[in-house]
Amino acid sequence: MSKGTLFDKVWDLHTINTLPSGQTQLFIGLHLIHEVTSPQAFSMLRDRGLKVLFPDRTIATVDHIVPTISQTRPFVDPMAEEMMQELEKNCKENNIRFYNIGSGGQGIVHVIAPEQGLTQPGMTIACGDSHTSTHGAFGAIAFGIGTSQVRDVLASQTLALAKLNVRKIEVNGTLPTGVYAKDVILHIIRTLGVTGGVGYAYEFAGTTFEQMSMEERMTVCNMAIEGGARCGYVNPDRVTYDYLKDRNFAPKGPEWDRAIDWWNSLRSNADAQYDDIVVFDAADIPPTVTWGITPGQGIGVNQTVPTPEELSDQDRALAQEAYSYMNLQPGQPIQGTAIDVCFIGSCTNGRISDLREAAKIAKGRFVAEGIKAFVVPGSEQVKQQAEAEGLNEIFEAAGFEWREPGCSMCLAMNPDKLVGNQISASSSNRNFKGRQGSASGRTLLMSPAMVAAAAITGQVTDVRALL
Fold first, then answer.
1. What is the 3-state composition of the chain as percent helix, strand, coil, each rounded to the nearest 5?
2. pLDDT in tens, 140-189
3. CATH code of the region 288-465
4. Where are the domains of the chain?
5. What is the rounded CA–CA span in Å between residue 416 and residue 420?
6. Residues 363, 110, 224, CA angle at the centre, nearest 5°?
7. Is there a common fold for 165-234+263-284 and 288-465?
8. pTM reported for the whole predicted model
9. Residues 28, 159: contact at Cβ < 8 Å?
10. Which one, of 445, 419, 441, lies nearest residue 430 by Cα?
11. Considering the domain 6-161 in this protein, what is its CATH number?
12. 428 vs 459: CA distance, rounded Å
């Protein structure tokens, strides 16, 4: 087993007990909730006559079901409005801080917690959402959980979990021009597989991650779950502290200096033991696009869809399913694939730096005829900052729609959906069948800059040609 890693240290600090099952009863420092997985959990509490144990450790926002064109209440979708009202009621009854629409702090849960300074190194964080692994970018241990576990955290502020192995994933070197954090994680998942991380926490390390901004690190940790890992993290450093300083919930004054000393002590030891180590060279990572129906079915933008002969026996059956569903042929170049819809946003790539990179591609150009292209900021703060920088004007001048904050077409639990067998260039995190709202809709995952390039040309395009 691993020893001396940040994961081990944070796990041990939050361990309350070892349960008869052999699992650890783990204290959860921060609990994030939204409108989709919390209503049933609150109902379970009421059925048992229980209260929220530590309401000050739970933070709520609304993101999955909110429309991004008009957020006037009541929502047009009666189910969305009902879920919204339920969250408002539960937060009011339990004295839970709620970043509602119009508060200035609303947005995708994994965007707003970092920007408020709620996410900090050394924390254990849980949320009823798969991509809670995002918060590991700060040196936290963050888990996505199910509805019954949301109930458990509300009632006891603890979870029953089995301790994970730790795999160190090193990426070293400077990323080539036109290669982004999204390409890094897609390349890792492509190499290790969508089940390669099962039973593991991923520690992302190496000079490439040291050079990344916090928002880039969040993109990588966000998709650790897509590689099968339960969580992913980066050791905290000066980049982390510069991001957190002066944010709403960050320590202030003398507490700040003490916090940094403690956070530094949590970093993985130089002689830490890992259960596995995998090393990548940044120079080998190309702009990456998924061609199939899992995030692991990815290729470089200048490569071709793999043939069955190129794949392992265990991958061939899924590839055959993907060829049919995606209407792509083995050996076909992915570059040049026609696109119908281009979506920039999500908890993976809806932050200000993502929008800036996409705007560089859009500036002075125009969306290809027949392409629906839209940009969804990850939060009200991101929207406000983008508008202050004039990014919205760049996008709108180029023919993109500029929307209100929300999860949008990442999972289509709102009006933003693919229609029929439309094919989407998406900066989101999943390309599963039907993920974007149509049972036959098709999704190609890529970086925001690559999505912008696809919007301009109407097809999958190597973004380096437009830089």
1. 40, 20, 45
2. 999 999 999 999 999 999 999 999 999 999 999 999 999 999 999 999 99
3. 3.30.499.10
4. 6-161, 165-234+263-284, 288-465
5. 13
6. 90
7. no
8. 0.98
9. yes
10. 445
11. 3.30.499.10
12. 18
